[in-house]
Amino acid sequence: MTPRDTKTDILDAAERLFAERGYDGTAIREITRAANVNVAAIHYHYGSKEEVLRGVTDRIVGPLNERRFKLLERALDDAQPHPPSIEAILEAFIRPDIETLQRLHQRGPTVAHFLGRTYMDPTPWIQQMAQEQFAEVQTRLFPVLAATLDHLTFDEIEWRMSRVTAVLIHLFATWPDDGMTDAQADDTLARMIRFLAPGLQVPAPENATKEVASET
Fold first, then answer.
1. Number of folded domains that form the chain
2. Of 23, 30, 80, 190, which residue has the fewest beta carbons closer than 10 angstroms?
3. CB count in 10 Å sphere of residue 108
4. Is residue 161 within 8 Å of residue 89, measured between CB atoms?
5. Burial class (CB in 10 A: 0-12, 13-18, 19+), 23
6. Do the domain assignments include residue 20?
7. How does pLDDT run across 127-176, given as a tens digit for each residue?
């Protein structure tokens, strides 16, 4: 078995176990048994269970974010010289997740449940890891949102997008064990956009003070 195969086997096994039991409910030795490796292999390649979780998450989230950036750039180009619509921004944010889960076929529900469990985990270092993984998304996405939602403060946009993310995480956690058909996935994406867009665009509370969104 090559080093690359060993690392992949460890991540595959950990992904399944974390999806079923969560991080705290999964022991290193359970990962080694499922991956058919010894504990030394995990320590050699990853050093700790914490780094295994980070490795599983990185290999999913990295490509997702790259797809988000491409769709966001397309939305910006299509809307020139105006800011893109909130629906176009939401599609750039949400579509990559649903596309990926569909493309993974039988592995899709496992990845969905893994993401749902991981991002709902209140453990501080896991929350910090999630913030780091999505820092570039926030840096690129929020100025576009600020231009489209120019009646809102940056803090209000940030709060509302955290609610959008919560809905997306709930979708992961409740993704059907037998997956979705392409038609069901397309319908889910469309319904999420129709549901979330009005909430993002609703006028700010009367006592909110408009700030300069470009300060970020």
1. 1
2. 80
3. 20
4. no
5. buried
6. no
7. 999 999 999 999 999 999 999 999 999 999 999 999 999 999 999 999 99
